[in-house]
Design brief:
The complex is a heterodimer of chains A (313) and B (403).
Chain A: E1 10-13, H1 18-29, E2 34-38, E3 46-53, E4 60-68, H2 71-78, E5 82-85, H3 89-101, E6 106-109, H4 116-129, E7 132-134, E8 140-143, H5 147-151, E9 158-160, E10 169-176, H6 179-188, E11 194-199, H7 210-219, E12 225-231, H8 236-247, E13 252-257, H9 281-290, E14 294-296, H10 299-312
Parallel strand pairs in A: 1-2, 1-5, 2-4, 5-6, 6-7, 10-11, 10-12, 12-13, 13-14
Antiparallel strand pairs in A: 3-4, 8-9, 8-11
Helix pairs in contact in A: 3-4, 6-10, 7-8, 8-9
Chain B: H1 5-14, E1 22-25, H2 28-38, E2 42-46, E3 59-62, H3 65-76, E4 79-80, E5 83-84, E6 88-92, E7 96-107, E8 112-118, H4 125-131, E9 136-141, H5 149-159, H6 166-182, E10 185-196, E11 206-209, E12 212-216, H7 238-245, E13 249-252, E14 257-261, H8 264-278, E15 281-282, E16 289-292, H9 299-310, E17 317-324, H10 329-345, E18 352-359, H11 362-371, E19 377-379, H12 383-398, E20 401-402
Parallel strand pairs in B: 14-17, 17-18, 18-19
Antiparallel strand pairs in B: 1-6, 2-3, 2-6, 4-5, 7-8, 7-10, 8-9, 10-11, 10-12, 13-16, 15-20
Helix pairs in contact in B: 2-3, 5-6, 8-12, 9-10, 10-11
Chain lengths: 313, 403
């Protein structure tokens, strides 16, 4: 099991905006099979993206991407298996609902600043329909394929804003609440490479929890060991620890950010807040260690812990 | 965003949740006048956005004008758990027969809404939940569903309200739900929801919200007129307010090393690195702030960020930590140089800045910093060594001894 199959057709909601354009071009260059965009006012138009690598990776050419007025039309025309959402916060709820109703099985929400009530509604609706939301307020997810696979046209999928050039294919998996810390750890472990990385997002309610993401990586035969990046707020790391203790078959190391964060202050991410003494970094670290997961004091120590594990595998 | 008690009361009052008569006062004169209007005995309550204010001496009953003057002077001069008291709520004293606890909140784990109540109110609900979980009733509400009068009545019965109170309790629960949903709240808590009245007079007994805590979802401000009705000029950190206006995530801390970075996680990690390195000194060196410049930092944004961080007189050095994902370190470097030049032109005294770049165009970024030959810009190879250098600089200026 994996988040998404290689070469899966993908659409982008909010493709015609600045963020949407920039990151669609990036995702295409990373080899993602983007087959359409959605914009209610621009249905029927096409957008042209230059210098997009061919399926065999040998040359480049321009790629025309059609814009559909609705998600349902896009789904019908392309059989999209995922949608990446870049629309502004106030329109995010209707964008998510539209994607759910179009029965797109994976919805990756990059947008930061969505009201928690809107997310709660959409996550509940998606759960009811058996649809996975990743995010919101996340960098998205990536899967990677080996050189041999790439040479035979099997390409990993880059959904969101994770830079494609930090790492190549390898045997690690990563689950993170933070974008830049994801890049930092990927970069420190680039010599091992990654099979999949997922940013679950920094909001109080997210569509895919750290535990759910780890479950998928545990079932993915390409992943040999996992890195967890957590931060203050909530108890997702504690829940993950308890699950991992009984079910995880692969080694896991973790890093938690925010030891020096004061009580009651939101540290950038909407969900990153210690309240009533709960959600502290120290509490998360202890819960993880109690369940046998090694926790690094900083990103480089965490990478070092992973190296030590990889040497024994 | 946490509301003050007097603001939370407004929202409850709009929905007919019974609350005692009360008047907000920000000066001693206003407080005395309010107490005279309400009548004696009455209660003076410090308005701070932190719990346990009663234990800290921030809630006092007064019996006449002299006491009102003496106590309001006292409370208005207090600092409770680091929060300076700048306002008072004067409320009528109630004779309490029993105390309940009720709250509605966003449940992060179950990704729904959690109605929580106990008849064993008055103390810390966390303690009751730990020692007597059987006294705490919870109802999870799916975000696709509604909380209606039937559910509220069932809940009220389960909580164990005294028979005669069940229907009023159900009404209050339902109104709390409306306050929660209509205001995009993440928490509506009434503690205590008290039964008040004269012991021998059944007709006088009723439920009343004696204290309330409401947190609103800042992300929903766009559909509530920016919560402008709750904007107060007091109780805010000046620098935090300035930064918020510029759209920057800035949290003022109490140390000496300013921290700027891109991405909330990396900045949290950076303040941890500073705190870790600062352990080696006596007194300890700590981070002065958290500042996330987000993706794609322009020169202007960098200048504004440096300006805010350095206008904190406590700041003795600054640690800039950038991992270029989509953001180019080259652009950030240009931003830093432009910002520093601008600040020098404005006559700002610059403290030393330690920069660590990694990722997208990091080498190009470092070259730009090198070529600018600014004496007070230092470059470090790793996040940890950069934090250490910034801490060492601050320690030198503050004459802290190395342990």
């Amino acid at each position: 099991m994996s988040f998404i199959n290689p070469n899966a057709p993908v659409i982008v909601q909010g493709m015609t905006g600045h963020q949407g354009m920039t990151h669609t071009a990036r995702m295409l260059k990373a080899g993602t099979n983007i087959v359409g965009g959605v914009n209610p006012r621009k249905g029927g138009q096409t957008l042209t993206f230059d210098d997009i690598p061919d399926a065999d990776g040998l040359g480049t050419k321009s790629r025309e991407v059609p814009i559909y007025a609705t998600c349902s039309q896009a789904k019908e025309a392309t059989n999209a298996q995922a949608s990446v959402i870049f629309v502004p916060p106030r329109f995010a709820k209707s964008a998510m609902v539209e994607a759910i109703e179009a029965r797109i099985p994976l919805i990756v929400v990059i947008t930061e600043g969505i009201p928690v009530a809107d997310t709660a509604y959409c996550v509940a609706l998606a759960q009811k329909q058996g649809i996975r939301i990743v995010g919101p307020n996340c960098p998205g997810l990536c899967t990677y394929t080996s050189h041999d696979e790439q040479n035979s046209g099997i390409r990993g999928v880059n959904l969101g804003i994770i830079p494609d050039d930090i790492v190549g294919y390898g045997s690690l998996g990563l689950v993170s609440k933070s974008g830049t810390l994801t890049y930092q750890l990927m970069s420190e472990l680039s010599d091992y490479g990654f099979a999949a990385a997922i940013g679950v997002g920094g909001d109080p309610i997210v569509g895919t929890t750290q535990q759910e993401a780890l479950e998928i990586l545990n079932d993915d035969p390409r992943v040999k060991a996992c890195v967890i990046i957590g931060e203050i707020g909530g108890s997702a790391e504690q829940e993950l620890a308890l699950w991992a203790k009984d079910h995880m078959t692969k080694p896991v190391v973790a890093y938690i950010a925010g030891y020096s964060a004061p009580e009651g202050k939101q540290m950038g991410h909407a969900g990153a807040i210690v309240s009533g003494g709960s959600g502290t970094a120290q509490g998360k670290k202890e819960a993880l260690e109690k369940c046998g997961i090694k926790v690094g004091r900083n990103p480089s120590e965490t990478a070092q812990l992973m190296r030590e594990i990889m040497e024994t595998l | 965003m946490d509301l003050y008690e007097y603001q939370a009361r407004e929202l409850l009052q709009e929905k007919d949740v019974p609350i005692p008569e009360g008047i907000f006062a920000s000066t001693v004169e206003e407080a005395v006048q309010a107490a005279n209007t309400i009548g004696y005995p009455c209660v003076l309550k410090a308005q701070v956005r932190i719990g346990h204010r009663g234990q800290a001496g921030g809630v006092k009953i007064v019996h006449d004008e002299d006491e009102a003057r003496f106590m309001s002077e006292h409370i208005l001069g207090m600092t409770i758990h680091g929060h300076k008291v700048r306002g008072l709520l004067v409320v009528e004293a109630a004779s309490i027969l029993h105390e309940y606890y009720v709250s509605i909140s966003v449940d992060r784990s179950s990704r729904d809404y959690d109605v929580l109540a106990t008849a064993a109110g008055g103390t810390e609900v966390e303690e009751i939940a730990k020692e007597h979980p059987e006294f705490v009733k919870r109802l999870h509400i799916n975000p696709l569903d509604d909380f209606d009068i039937n559910a509220a009545e069932k809940m009220a019965q389960e909580i164990g309200f005294h028979h005669a109170d069940t229907s009023q309790a159900a009404h209050i629960l339902l109104e709390m739900w409306k306050v929660f949903i209509e205001n995009d709240a993440t928490l509506v808590e009434i503690n205590p929801l008290a039964k008040v009245g004269i012991p021998d007079d059944e007709a006088s007994k009723h439920l009343m919200a004696l204290d309330a805590k409401i947190s609103l979802d800042s992300n929903a401000a766009f559909r509530h007129d920016g919560w402008s009705r709750f904007a107060t000029s007091y109780g805010h950190d000046e620098l935090e307010a300035q930064a918020a206006q510029l759209g920057l995530h800035y949290v003022h801390l109490d140390g000496n090393v300013g921290v700027i970075g891109n991405g909330a996680g990396l900045v949290m990690s950076s303040i941890d690195a500073v705190a870790d390195a600062g352990q080696d000194f006596d007194p300890k060196i700590k981070p002065a702030n958290f500042l996330d410049i987000g993706g794609g930092a322009s020169a202007q944004l960098m200048a504004q960020s440096l300006d805010i961080v350095m206008s904190d007189p406590q700041v003795k050095s600054v640690f800039i930590n950038v991992y270029g994902g989509i953001t180019s370190c080259k652009q950030v470097a240009q931003g830093i140089i432009e910002a520093v030049d601008k600040l020098i032109q404005n006559g700002t005294t610059l403290c030393d800045i330690v920069v660590r770049f990694d990722g997208n165009e990091a080498t190009e970024g470092l070259t730009i910093l090198d070529n600018a030959h600014h004496d007070n810009i230092h470059v470090a190879q790793t996040m940890d060594s950069a934090a250490e250098e910034a801490v060492n600089i601050a320690a030198r200026i503050l004459n802290c001894e190395s342990k």
